[in-house]
Amino acid sequence: MKTLIREKRTEKNMTQEELSQALQVSRQTIISLEKGKYKPSLVLAHKLSQIFECSIEDLFIFEGDENIQGLH
Amino acid sequence: MKTLIREKRTEKNMTQEELSQALQVSRQTIISLEKGKYKPSLVLAHKLSQIFECSIEDLFIFEGDENIQGLH
DNA sequence: AATATATGTAAAGTAACCTTGACATGCGAT
DNA sequence: ATCGCATGTCAAGGTTACTTTACATATATT
For residue A43, which residues of chain B lie inside 8 Å, CB to CB? Predict the structure, then answer.
């Protein structure tokens, strides 16, 4: 899975610290998400999409078996 | 958080077993999701939205602090 | 009455998400 | 040169998602 979190964040001129506070998570969580260390929970993905004013599907790119078989 | 998984599934005349196979998860996972016992991972939510041909935001209703502060 | 199908519960284990805290690096400003 | 800010690493621990297995219930069919 790929994510556009960093791109969207810098477009908005936000620091990791600011984003973490808006989401009410630790800054470490932002770092890990941006670096692809792990995938956000559904709720966190939703909050990110609210902040960046886009859909969840716009923020994340699902690859391979992250899609259902036969699609994409 | 509320989910429309059960409604969408029955609309499609699918059993829990069929849905679980399409998603490649256990039937127990479907039961737990439908009953609201826990929230799906982002990838699972995405797969569900593919099967039901809708957006993730259409499948799940976020409440209270599952939205960012000041919104909704 | 017995069998099949769909749905449900419970328990115990593994893996992933997320946290806190401490410390390191690069860079621009004073 | 050093101070502050933004970013990063590492490690340990808690919570939650998800699995497997086994068993229970309701309904419909034969």
Answer: 1, 39, 62, 66
